[in-house]
Design a protein that fits this description.
2 domains, disordered N terminus, alpha/beta, six-stranded mixed sheet, D-Maltodextrin-Binding Protein, domain 2, globular, 330 residues
Length: 330
């Protein structure tokens, strides 16, 4: 006989079953992560530095974790389109963002109405790689040093065009910092990505640009363009013999670092974040990946979520101050 007490017990217990099953499934998925293909969103077009980094990382993670890490280019709006896509994705570890200094540290200070809140909607997983920005110039421009370039620009106000991968990119901000600190007049020409900007510079449509070593150093070695300096605070071991911007009088505080890191949507289980972080650290410590990055002038990363969070926060503040002082508005 079913008593009133039993009915009450059944009534309470029945709806709890699906919830408990859901928790168990989620726990099982976390324990076996990854158990299916993972999407790695690269918020810039093919040919950009982020594309090279993302595909290198995806290939290594696929080997180490036994599941496909599929690179997917979702470019536009200086990386904001791809970042917004990931921010709105399920927080389950199967959609990752290869964030950059532009998407995660610059854009929030330039665009007041981004479709995501960068510091609230993402969790830092691990730094992948970093590199100083590099100043490239057209091979026919009659300059061979940063001081030469400043002198030429002052003698030819308004005649130099500098390119960048897009409005608000680190390349754009580096050019604006250079204008401000060197007291020169140049015109910014934004492109949709680094590759078309580099092509335009080799063709003489623009005269200079700031970008990563992976984008320009192969063209330097081929004699198609010239390189003048890097934007690290001290000479980079990845770019031997190349002076820094800060060695030129008036540019002592000129620093602009490009970095790439893995992020996941806020709410992703910590066990998944830790698994991904350890996998990235292992990938960046592997000799084949290290050598591949070093050849491109990139310093391999690989750190804990906590350490990467601090690094990200410091750069976020740095670019916020630069944009405020330079009064840069989109």
């Amino acid at each position: 006989m079913i008593t009133r007490r039993k009915l009450l017990l059944y009534g309470v217990a029945a709806p709890a079953v699906p919830w408990i099953a859901g928790v168990r499934r989620a726990h099982a998925d976390t324990e076996t992560y990854p158990n299916r293909a993972v999407r790695l969103v690269i918020p810039f077009p093919p040919g950009a530095g982020a594309d090279f980094i993302g595909r290198t990382l995806g290939r290594k993670l696929s080997q180490d974790l036994g599941q496909s890490f599929v690179p997917e280019n979702r470019d536009g709006a200086n990386g904001s389109i791809g970042a917004a896509f990931v921010a709105k994705s399920a927080a389950d570890g199967y959609t990752l963002l290869l964030g950059t200094s532009a998407t995660m540290a610059v854009n929030p200070h330039l665009y007041p109405s981004l479709p995501y809140r960068v510091r609230q909607d993402f969790v830092a997983v691990s730094l992948v790689a970093s590199t100083p920005n590099v100043l490239y110039v057209n091979k026919d421009l009659p300059v061979n040093s940063v001081a030469d370039l400043i002198g030429y620009a002052r003698k030819n106000p308004g005649k130099l065009n500098f390119g960048s991968p897009g409005n608000g990119s680190v390349g754009d901000l580096s050019g604006e910092m250079f204008k401000l600190m060197a007291k020169v007049d140049m015109t910014h020409v934004p492109f949709r990505g680094s590759a078309p900007a580099m092509t335009a510079m080799m063709a003489g449509q623009i005269q200079l640009m700031f970008d990563s070593p992976v984008v320009g150093m192969p063209h330097v070695k081929a004699g198609q363009i010239k390189v003048l300096a890097c934007s690290a605070s001290k000479p980079s071991p990845m770019l031997p013999g190349l002076p820094t911007m800060s060695q030129t009088p008036g540019l002592e505080d000129f620093v602009a670092i490009l970095w790439y890191g893995v992020f996941v949507p806020r709410g992703t289980p910590d066990a998944v974040v830790q698994t991904l972080s350890r996998a990235v650290q292992h990938a960046m410590a592997s000799e084949d990946v290290k050598q591949e990055l070093l050849k491109q002038g990139m310093e391999p990363g690989g750190d804990s979520p906590g350490d990467f969070e601090k690094y990200w926060g410091a750069d976020y503040e740095h670019w916020g101050n630069v944009i405020k002082v330079a009064n840069i508005k989109m």
